[in-house]
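Bug report (template v2)

What were you trying to do?
Predict the complex of my protein with copper (II) ion.

What happened?
Run completed; filing so the output is reviewed.

Input:
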Amino acid sequence: MKQRGEQDQAQPTLTVLSPANNSTISGSTVEVKLELSGDLKGYMPHKDPATGKGNHIHVILDNQPYEAYYEINQPFELRNVAEGKHTLRLFPSRPWHESFKNNGAFEMVTFTVKGGGDTSKPTTTNKGETMASPAASPQPSREGKDVAKSMAGEVSATNPLLTYSRPKGDYSGAEADPLMIDFWLSNARLRDEGGEYRVRYTIDGAQTGFIDKWGPIWLSGWTTGKHTVKLELIDKNGNAVENGGYNSTTRDINVTR
Ligand SMILES: [Cu+2]
């Protein structure tokens, strides 16, 4: 903590240079380029090679689990993106994956991919004859991810929007106890902060609780094995708030010892 200085009190402002909002991208590789400004207090994404940890940006294609982007002076490649309309949601995060929640930290852009698909497979004619071989592999030094197939939801950038961040994936040992639940909230205030909304979490389809103040919560007592975590945005009448399907998200996680 001493080494980190004041950076956890930073107020980073994120700007998406690429893909531009409402742009069209040719081909299935989408280059993400970002700029950080504002009151950074020394905050800068970077992975420490020794520990494999560090500040990073959470990059969310459509409503898939986020990818971590560490070296923002180089582009991050989303590879094998399907043809069609997509959203990208991004926000800076600390080494322990807790997001910055100040104004300006969150960005959402919508873009369209033309000629996307599975470029690892050769292009073939309708008779199955190979026309072209797969392109050369991307430079291994470039950060990026082969993404799963997904499309954008019919999402409004001005309506209440809940963006699921953590937990996701695999946790082992001390990492799994406790586990942090963290999310981004746009265009909505929670009940204990002068608003009318609540975030409902449901663990394994059964154990339910509410978050009424925007911040991470930590839950203990995870048994070894698979679990589901669902986050939903709930209005004052107790109903789920719809926004392109993004306001109700379930992730599978796996806890090992
Ligand atoms: Cu993270």
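What did the reviewer find?
The pocket of copper (II) ion is lined by residues 56, 58, 68, 93, 97 (CB under 6 Å). The chain has a mean pLDDT of 92.
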